[in-house]
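Tutorial, part two.
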Amino acid sequence: MSCGIDMRRALAGCALLTLAACAPPPPPAPPSAPELPPAIAAQYATVQDGGIEVPAVPAKYLSERTIRREVDYWTDEKPGTVIVDPWQRFLYYEQPGNRAIRYGVAVGDEGRAFSGTAHIPYSRDWPGWRPTENMIREFPGQYAQYRDGLEGGLTNPLGARALYLHKGNRDTFYRIHGTSEMDSIGNATSAGCIRMFHQDVIELETLVRSGARVIVLTEDESGKGTAPPGTPLPQLEPPVIATEGDPA
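Running the prediction step on this input gives:
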């Protein structure tokens, strides 16, 4: 092989190295989804319910604040009581021995407008939904099309279950229900009552008995029960307002 050919090859190699050095670096790989413990992944996996396939909750929406877990909770209320803290966006289902199952929830303006005691006389699986006359009158473009109601399903604002709250014989129009707006859980939202992941509200509905007592805390009571008696309550976290279109 001639020296000329070797020189040309060497120069070509140098040119390739120079081009490689000038080329922009490859984009970083997208971050991988957080790996969930198997037990948590199973809690929020895809489930068949009433002929409807409920999708799994993506790992990005599952955090310490949003997953259901058993926690310490100090209260004089009887086991089976439901306590809602709209300001911390938690719902507690009371267990014996100062323990509770804690669920992360989304809370709308309506959810923060009600406080006090109520009871749950009944619940519904995949309930239908109809906007109120006030909603239709104020926002006809958004709600008039549903004047005759919307049948149950994943696109229905009430989701997989609805637990209806009454005071005496009067419907408060306050609901604990499922939602397909999974990114809203753990946040204060622009509309709606108390919303839960479908998987969570399905479980809660199996636990709650007809007539169960419900306590909805005021802002001044927020955090009540989360610290032993005689110790300061945790500071109230500022709400994250997530504006979205789920009206219920």
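The chain is about 20% helix and 25% strand. In part three we will examine how such features are distributed along the chain.
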